[in-house]
């Protein structure tokens, strides 16, 4: 793809943009769909996205998907984020689905990937109270029962969308220490022994504690290879970091456009406040940073599509770092330019800020991304 869109991608972006304006283009529409912003995921609207076939944008055609690449998924994420479409379940779904696509059995793929295309939400459970950035330190344990089944005990935390998920991809310890002995498991919603407790956040109901108490899974619940979960996780880093970057690129563009619209209309001292040099320079700097971010995200997506079996840890980390830090800056600058109105819940800027602040934490903190980038140069 490079940094330019094909005619098909241009039409796709236009269709998603039109959908967003029509279905959730006003504050009243979004409030009705999200419980006034408390629920980032609307099952009602998500079902409509499934009807258009967009939820399978980068999933294989044999499971009902469109067969597109990462670049297409990034465009979808960017535009739904820009349009403030309450489809928060899509990010974790597409990240998780790519793991099943690469490592799942044919039965698992037929169930999970086809379900995702139809609107099923997927979640992935890695983080624990004592294992966040250091995923290799996780202790949630899976052991074999006498009949070959798996018995799971432990706790996961900060699990996005677990409360609306049709299934959870669990990463548990099956042996060894640190990165050795991790295994992925397919856990359908409603499995006995699984308890989900919501964690209230600045962004509403997004994340959860998930407890596994004597959970019994069949032998064929393993996704991929036993004790090889760490390698499988590493293979998915391109997807996770790129998708999060694309999402935050969309939010950055929206925060910027909202701020520009405000300073065009707001007058002080007899002229629009945007005409003052102090704000013009802020706008110029942000516009330049947004364009740099857009080019980076699209270029990394194109590289990943061109070489699907190659990992791009440095480039994916750069995209995630740049996009999330730029989103945070854009929302903060937007609030500053709007003054008190940027802080008021009457406007969307405070929502943009709440969404942007956490983006530098989840999916690997900015500090972790910098460490990955630095290590790639031998440091």
What does this structure look like?
There is one protein chain. The chain folds into 3 domains: 7-87, Acyl-CoA dehydrogenase/oxidase, N-terminal domain (Butyryl-Coa Dehydrogenase, subunit A, domain 1), CATH 1.10.540.10; 124-227, Beta Barrel (Butyryl-CoA Dehydrogenase, subunit A, domain 2); 236-375, Up-down Bundle (Butyryl-CoA Dehydrogenase, subunit A, domain 3). Strand 4 and strand 5 form a beta hairpin. Helix content is 51%, strand content 15%. It starts with 6 loop residues before the first helix and ends with a helix. The protein contains 13 helices and 10 strands. The mean pLDDT is 94. The longest helix has 30 residues, at 277-306. The radius of gyration is 21 Å and the shape is globular. By secondary structure, it is α+β, with helices and mostly antiparallel strands.
